[in-house]
User: Fold this.
Amino acid sequence: MHYEEIIQSTIKKNNSKIVLLVLDGLGDIRSPKFYSKTPLEYAHTPNLDQLAKKSVLGRMYPILPGITPGSGPGHLGLFGYDPLKNVIGRGVLEAIGIDFSLQAHDVAARCNFATINEESIITDRRAGRISTEITQKLCEILQTIKEIDGVEIIIKSGKGHRFVTIFRSKQKEIGSLINDTDPLVEGKAPLLANGKNTPSQFLAQVINKFMKKGYELLKEQFPANAFLLRGIASKPKIPSISEKYLLESAAIASYPMYRGIASLLGMTLLPAPDSIEGLFQTYVNYKQKYDFFFIHVKGTDQAGEDGDFDSKVKCIETVDKSLPILLDHMPDVLAITGDHSTPCVMRSHSFHPMPVLLHSDFSGIDDVDRFHENACNLGGLGFFESRYLMGLLLANAKRLDKFGA
Amino acid sequence: MHYEEIIQSTIKKNNSKIVLLVLDGLGDIRSPKFYSKTPLEYAHTPNLDQLAKKSVLGRMYPILPGITPGSGPGHLGLFGYDPLKNVIGRGVLEAIGIDFSLQAHDVAARCNFATINEESIITDRRAGRISTEITQKLCEILQTIKEIDGVEIIIKSGKGHRFVTIFRSKQKEIGSLINDTDPLVEGKAPLLANGKNTPSQFLAQVINKFMKKGYELLKEQFPANAFLLRGIASKPKIPSISEKYLLESAAIASYPMYRGIASLLGMTLLPAPDSIEGLFQTYVNYKQKYDFFFIHVKGTDQAGEDGDFDSKVKCIETVDKSLPILLDHMPDVLAITGDHSTPCVMRSHSFHPMPVLLHSDFSGIDDVDRFHENACNLGGLGFFESRYLMGLLLANAKRLDKFGA
Assistant:
């Protein structure tokens, strides 16, 4: 029996409300060459401090020590889906990232426009990094292909030279055990798609026809006279939050990637205004209707990626200032954390454990009186993997029965 | 190679003495609405404090974060048996809980008296919650069935409408992959027993005959004119402490459940007087005869279940006051902890990590100078799962060789 099975076998319903507030990329580090405090340490956060005094704190590994997660695995872990067992394909993440609503058997691929010469040899895998506007126009041209062998072709432009293709089949099963057609180097021809089982072989043939037809249509569009497919993936079969935890769940998130992941897990997408106040207000407005709220704040990650210490501090302070809106309608269980760290000095996601705060009538209270990385080192939750957080939230909500007699 | 295999491959004997003192349900939490200190924090414990100053401390998850264990999994973890892999069936725990000594191939079932109508439909699954006395009388009636198809039937009454049936076969193998005969709702007939393999099919037929004969005998005993079986389980095949660790082990525990678990693991049951002093004195009396002593104190859990903060404090203070009896005959390795937490504010087992204290010449000494939950957050043992405790005890006793060259 493993962890998720214990949860499954002990889960029960009650009327409790749970809020998981995720400040994306929240974790940070002190750096000898940069700042001697982390943004959380530096920020003026009277409301978070007050809450910390009544809560239990700790640090969470997004995956395992040393592993830096993308947003997919980072969030899957937070929702208690072992990110090592539940892998969401790149094509699906890309489709989600542009706010495309995938249906049950859809297969999605990341695509980029490329340049080939007369011998069909790739001379530029990114077609000279054409602009988003040009890509949009080219996608319209490609979209004149609507269907191949009964498989619907849906094309959505992305940033720069990137776009996403979704394959949707109503009649015949399609599979996604298909190689990339991008050889990943220049000087070679695009690869033919090959499927590893019957439904994948069928879709591979459709993809080969799609490339042939598409290249024909793009002939005059040099340098973008070709395109390549990568990360071909089916919508994963993952149990929903409602199946897994008997929770009616809702997401308050404004960015497509996070809305997409929430929607994959069966959460209802609630209105998500741009302001942090607005996010908390949405929770208040819908508090009675759902059991579990995932509130996502993007600013902390953005600031980290930009290496902008001041912006990260400011975003944290805005959250702190708006927090009373949420605290005035205190859920039974509240957790505040990140999906991973994004240290300003690194300007990227990182492997550092996140600070985490957990408050409920039964969370216990430790001696930590501020919410920041190093304070959390001494907390009553210790260090743990984020895939256990959801179990802690459910346990605090008294939604888990005893295991064994 | 997994953890238990490493222990197996490095274990050796020596003359060291190990004591594991378990204060049942010891762990607790500070609660904003209840007490601002935990019972361990609040208690006056000069001897424990003194010991903490010379020891290494930490916190132990009974299973994994968020999981609340029953006494079975809680104790299995303490003895280094992975509670996710070694599951003791409910019927067996029930038999253990009434102090019944199971033999190697016994199968046990939890039973309850019930009421059926003339169409054999269950109208009350608990027969109007008849008294323990009536249940005892009814069990005597049922026990006139001594044997069916060569399988001995042993009936032991429990509390209220509950009893345990043990099936013992000397000739033919019996299995326990058998469904409950209790449909778990009223308005349905009792279910027939069905076995999933040959030895289980054989016992299922015996059970069906037992029910038929039994109902016949109970006919005139309305409302208790029927009974239902649940949690049908075989005595688990678990290696004994002696096989696993080469330890001569003894249990000093007065409650049936804990004596039962100890006995399942092959420990010798020593006299266990009601007083805590008495428990420690038993250890002193038998110190020369055994390598490993499991001393079980029930009062802390009882107080927690009753929500009785003062009692829990008092029980801890009594342990502290009696501790010199044990300390004057200091074992080579001493650990003090719980099998799970039972916070007074929750009046039930909980998922919170237990405080743990470990003392030996080689335990190391950290900066923690008191034995309570939040102090232990900062200890030199960190946070770990209780299934690793036994390895730590053996290592401190120098009973484990180096792993690998």
About this structure: Chain B has two domains: 3-87+238-396, 93-234. Chain B has a mean pLDDT of 95. Chain B touches chain A at residues 29-33, 36, 59, 63-73, 83-85, 87-88, 90, 93-94, 343, 345-346, 348-353, 373-374, 377-378, 382-383 (CB under 8 Å). The longest helix of chain B spans residues 198-218.
